[in-house]
Specification:
By secondary structure, the chain is mostly helical. 45% of the residues lie in helices and 10% in strands. The protein has a single domain, classed as Intergrase catalytic core (hpI Integrase, Chain A).
């Protein structure tokens, strides 16, 4: 699968963030050992940083950061480095874009016995199901995932 997509999956399955938010994973967003600040996404159409869905420019949300997710961010940063702005995932345009994500995902899911149409977004749903089945209140899960 590759380190890039593995980090994106960790961010989605471990924090429930959206695809574009995961593509914008940034070392500067780790604001405490256990807090990650989500404040932008890599937009699927423009392939550039953009405001969060359902938020105004400059608005953000802070999500609990599991140790394993923080270690994945730190490990990726140590191995691959970050841009001057702190982004970890990047491509030829400077940002990790949706088309870059699509090919490896399709290849991965073709090898696995999964439901037709399954994609990276399913890892966000995995997070929600896992959190709810662990007894986390639905309002906390919804807030973490960015629902207003």
């Amino acid at each position: 699968m590759g380190d890039d997509h593995a980090l994106q999956i960790v961010m989605m399955a471990g924090r429930g963030i959206r695809n574009g938010e995961a593509r914008a994973v940034n070392v500067n967003n780790v604001v405490a050992d256990d807090v990650y600040r989500v404040h932008e996404q890599i937009h699927s159409s423009t392939h550039r940083p953009a405001k969060l869905k359902h938020r105004k420019v400059g608005e953000f949300r802070e999500v609990p950061l599991a140790r394993s997710v923080r270690e994945a961010i730190e490990g990726y940063g140590e191995k691959h480095g970050a841009t001057r702005e702190g982004y970890l995932l990047r491509g030829p345009s400077g940002y990790y874009t949706e088309p870059m994500e699509r090919r490896p995902v399709r290849a991965l899911f073709e090898k696995l016995p999964v439901v037709d149409g399954m994609g990276t977004y399913g890892f966000r749903h995995y997070f929600a199901s896992n959190a709810l089945s662990s007894g986390i209140p639905i309002t906390d899960v919804a807030e973490c995932m960015g629902h207003k």
